[in-house]
UniProtKB/TrEMBL annotation:
This is Protein of uncharacterized function (DUF3396). InterPro entries: TsiV. Pfam families: TsiV.
Length: 267
């Protein structure tokens, strides 16, 4: 399980953030009672720590000299897409903490990230429509559970559809490729920057289509948008905000085109 703290709100304050990794035996959730106890404990942990983001799934228990076993983690991560890569998570750039690192069996989002995805009601509606994923709320955000139990299907048998559906919805807030650090340090048969970018995108199904944007749906990126129904006047729409309808038109009739992106993470 990975966790990123959220006690800071600006890049200058990022030294106040933290990273927590907890590893439990895989058979802890091997029974209904164990799974229920784990879910209750995870909600309690989120209430206490107020994480900005986090994820939970199968991973390897790395030894103290973990750098000597990165090739093992690399090979298994290629074979099992749902396996979490955690050996250097404590070294990843904390400047990327306002973005989601990856999705997993369980993915934790605070309210600031949920808002950038269109809000809680929109996210829950889309998740229920697209997958069997469940949502558990806590005071400062929510926990998205892709499947009843963690997935460990080999890539040769295809990607887990529920994981892909969760990834599709959360992809707009994922750390951008240009800001991704290598998941491993250096050496042969290990992740480098290029292969790390591919790993982050392992559940993607084609390019992210941000435009056109239908009225009544959330913008996937912040920027200036226009529509012929509004005489192509430019309107700034922040990531996660619903594209507006045009007066005198049917709801959802307007389709907005992205003129240019403009970063905005302030709410």
């Amino acid at each position: 399980m990975g966790y990123l703290g959220s006690t800071w709100r600006t890049e200058e304050e990022c030294n106040n953030s933290g990273c927590l990794i907890l590893i439990l035996p895989w058979d802890y959730i091997n029974t209904d009672a164990g799974l229920r106890k784990f879910n209750e404990w995870l909600v309690f942990l989120c209430e206490m720590l107020e994480p900005q983001s986090g994820d939970c799934g199968y991973c390897l228990t790395m030894p103290k000299d973990y750098h000597q076993y990165m090739s093992v983690e690399y090979q298994l991560a290629l074979r099992y897409p749902s396996l979490s890569v955690i050996s250097t998570i404590h070294l990843q750039s904390i400047a990327n903490n306002n973005n989601l690192k990856t999705i997993s069996w369980m993915t934790i989002l605070d309210h600031s990230l949920v808002k950038r995805l269109g809000g809680l009601k929109w996210l829950e509606k889309e998740l229920h429509a697209e997958s069997s994923a469940s949502v558990t709320r806590f005071s400062h955000g929510l926990i998205i559970q892709a499947t009843e139990y963690p997935d460990l299907t080999p890539v040769s048998e295809g990607l887990n559809k529920s994981y892909q559906a969760v990834n599709k919805l959360l992809r707009p807030i994922r750390v951008p490729p240009e800001n991704i650090d290598s998941l491993h340090l250096f050496g042969a048969n290990q992740f480098n920057k290029a292969t790390s970018i591919v790993w982050y995108a392992r559940f993607d199904d084609g390019p992210l289509m941000v435009t056109p944007l239908r009225a009544g749906t959330p913008a996937l990126v912040s920027g200036f948008w226009s529509t012929p129904l509004n005489h192509n006047r430019e309107l700034f729409i922040r990531q996660g905000e619903m594209a507006p309808d045009i007066a005198g038109q049917e709801p959802g009739a307007a389709y907005w085109s992205l003129v240019r992106e403009a970063d905005s993470f302030s709410y």
